[in-house]
Amino acid sequence: MSEPFFFSLTSAPTVGDLAALVNAEFDSQFAARRIEGLAALERAGPRDLAFFDNPRYADALAATRAGACLVRAAAFERAPKGVAALVVDHPYRAFARIAARLVPDSLRAAPIFAEGVSPEAHVHSQARLEPGVNVEPGAVVGAGAEIGSGTLVGANAVIGAGVRIGRDCTIGAGASLTHALLGDRVMLHPGVRVGQDGFGFALGARGHLKAPQIGRVIIQDDVEIGANCTLDRGATRDTIVGEGTKIDNLVQIGHNVVVGRHCIIVAQVGVAGSTELGDFVMVGGQTGIAGHLTIGAGARIAAQSGVMRDVPAGASVGGTPAQDLRLFLKRAAQDRRGRASKEKRT
To answer: Looking at the domain 15-106, which fold is it?
Structure first.
């Protein structure tokens, strides 16, 4: 178990309790065993819960000393004797559910100082804050801004005039929001920038004319946006991030972009203006997506891809320019064999 310097379990449930929580099958002889920690397979001790959900860690499963381990049915017999194997369909998802129950304070930032509005915060007299809002020292809340109950505004964050933030949101330290509407349970990690000008210029031989950006950013319920991401406001339309979407650190979302519901966008992705991503799209890290494209629902884009054309719904693509993933991997394998053959001849 990791040293509990920052997080401790709220209780010490039995294996039977955990099995009931995630509807797991297990050997009832372990029902009364107490679990006091959460750990990776190789670090787990007799009072820890671990999980096995990736074949690469088969050796770690075979050697684990965990008190209990979440596994798929196919791996039940591979758990060491004495380990309480909890059989579920999706071990990692089950582990996440258990961890959320046992370590709830790990899911969102807590106020650094006393709850409420810090006397060192700057809240405009015309801002409207529901009861239960926490505003940390140095934060600024502009005129006409509205913030729902249970929301935390971190130290030195800036909430612009007229911005609306729903309930139970987390605005990380140093974040800034202008021209934005946020739903409930939105989490913005430290340094996020929302609502600044989009990159719009009318180009000319004698210079470039800045095009006014008069849209907004709309972030729907249950969206999480990682540290130092930037989301530009729309030009003449809104930039929209759909319900439940999760965005990793250091992602750029251009003006007028529409991101669908429950998308996953990994670190260092750039999405150029006016592109639309359907629901449940997954974008690998360091991918660039050109502007004015449509990425269909359920599409998957491999890491470091360059997407220059529309991607059909459900397709998997990779490479630069992005192409069918199987074809890309086949050509990459051919290139490797060709280079190896050339090296042998020389």
So the answer is: 3.40.1390
Structure tokens at 48: 């820890």
Which of the following CATH numbers is that of domain 178-346: 3.30.479.30, 2.30.30.240, 2.160.10.10, 2.30.30.40? 2.160.10.10
Query: Could you give the CA distance from residue 337 to residue 325 in angstroms, rounded to a whole number?
Result: 18
pLDDT tens, 214-259?
999 999 999 999 999 999 999 999 999 999 999 999 999 999 999 9
> 164 by DSSP, 3-state: which?
strand
Query: How far is the C-alpha of 275 from the C-alpha of 239, rounded, in Å?
Result: 10
In whole angstroms, what separates CA 114 from the centre of its chain? 28
Q: What pTM does this model have?
A: 0.92
- For strand 180-182 and strand 217-219, is the pairing parallel, antiparallel, or unpaired? parallel
**Residues shown for the chain:** 346
d(CA 24, CA 71): 9
From the list 90, 124, 255, 292, the catalytic residue is 255
- In angstroms, what CA-CA distances link 238 with 63, 254, 262, 275? 53, 11, 19, 12
Specify whether 292 is catalytic: no
**For residue 345, what is the enclosing H or E element?**
helix 325-345
